[in-house]
Write a structure and sequence with these properties.
single chain; 342 residues; alpha/beta; 4-stranded mixed sheet
């Protein structure tokens, strides 16, 4: 079984019931989520040996986070314990013309105390086929950024392929700060995953004519952007997700992939998604792409699988994508009817 290692923060997610506004009623549901942890969960459900590395506090909240990930099939044996607190985020689900909202409360979280030498990366990455990280992790502070760079170098030394989801978060750092860190990191990756905003913010490379608020996207405009990212960063594959945001309840969803080795531009299937929870959609796409490539699928088929996996995720409440490879393959093959299977 192929082993994939991810590195990043998990947070306690607090959300009001259903489509309520924050504190409309005095109830918040508590679940867990975070970019790389979400990827790890997806990969475990898809059948890989999925391992997540991080640092969480040695208290009941940290215990609950690890228990939640173990319950999804993720190996958390190498997670360090320490620090004062687990990061929090509050997530309000939007509806129709009302946008969703996220409020972070993660300053001083356990992982933000990590730095160079905190993790024994050569040991942790021994036997790994793939290593994955996002741009959220190095945004948590200079020490974590250094630990991320160490992990990427150790993964390359171990012979693992490296993927980076740029995942720009403007509530965590500026574009200038992001580019200073992410351009060198991206240049050490094999695969880059992003959307058009991530590419601009983290790499300073724009998509001609892109307007994420218009509800429509020109797929052809992404070809040159993806090819330019591959050329400038020296990576073999660049995937860009395409979200047509018609409202907070209904999105078009697809992705494209530039294969630098073949000089081929692949366009994935497009789904009209009635959103249940869009958080984690990009993470499930990254996981689907990793799974497709690790399992030996051709680039175009890996892209098709990734788009289908992420479309399914956005119909599931919470951060985690609890779908099997068989379910994804059925949708990727065209079974989008949603009929009950009896």
């Amino acid at each position: 079984m192929k082993r994939v290692v991810t590195f990043g923060e998990v947070m306690l997610r607090l959300s009001p019931p259903g489509l309520e506004r924050f504190f409309q009623s005095p109830v918040l549901s508590a679940t867990f989520g975070g970019g790389e942890a979400n990827v790890a969960v997806s990969l475990a459900h898809l059948g890989l040996d999925s391992r997540w590395v991080s640092r969480v506090p040695a208290n009941a909240v940290g215990d609950a986070a690890l228990k939640a990930l173990r319950a999804e099939g993720v190996n958390v044996d190498d997670v360090l314990r320490g620090g004062a607190r687990l990061g929090l985020y509050f997530a309000e689900t939007g509806a129709s013309q009302r946008a969703g909202d996220v409020i972070y409360d993660r300053a001083g979280s356990a992982i933000s105390g990590a730095g160079p030498g905190t993790f024994a990366w050569p040991r942790l990455l021994e036997g790994a086929s793939w290593f994955h990280v996002t741009g959220i992790t190095p945004a948590l502070g200079p020490g974590v950024a250094a630990a991320t760079a160490e992990a990427v170098e150790a993964a390359r030394a171990a012979g693992a392929r490296v993927s980076i989801d740029l995942n720009y978060r403007k509530k965590l750092w500026t574009e200038r700060e992001a580019q200073a860190v992410m351009r060198p990191l991206a240049a050490r990756a094999d695969v880059i995953v992003a959307n058009e905003e991530d590419v601009q913010a983290c790499l300073g490379i724009g998509v001609a004519g892109a307007d994420v608020t218009s509800g429509s996207l020109d797929v052809a405009a992404y070809r040159e952007t993806a090819a330019r990212v591959a050329r400038e960063m020296g990576v073999s594959l660049v995937a860009i997700t395409l979200r047509e945001s018609w409202s907070a309840s209904r999105n078009g969803w697809s992705a494209v992939l530039w294969d630098a080795g073949e000089e081929a531009f692949h366009v994935g299937p497009r789904f009209d998604v009635t959103l249940v929870d869009r958080i984690g959609g990009g993470d499930s796409f990254a996981a689907g792409l990793i799974y497709g490539l690790v399992s030996g699928r051709a680039a175009a088929e890996a892209l098709r699988f990734a788009v289908a996996a992420s479309a399914l995720k956005q119909t599931i409440p919470g951060d985690f994508n609890r779908v099997s490879a068989d379910e994804v393959d059925r949708l990727a093959a065209g079974d989008a009817s949603g009929r009950v299977r009896r």
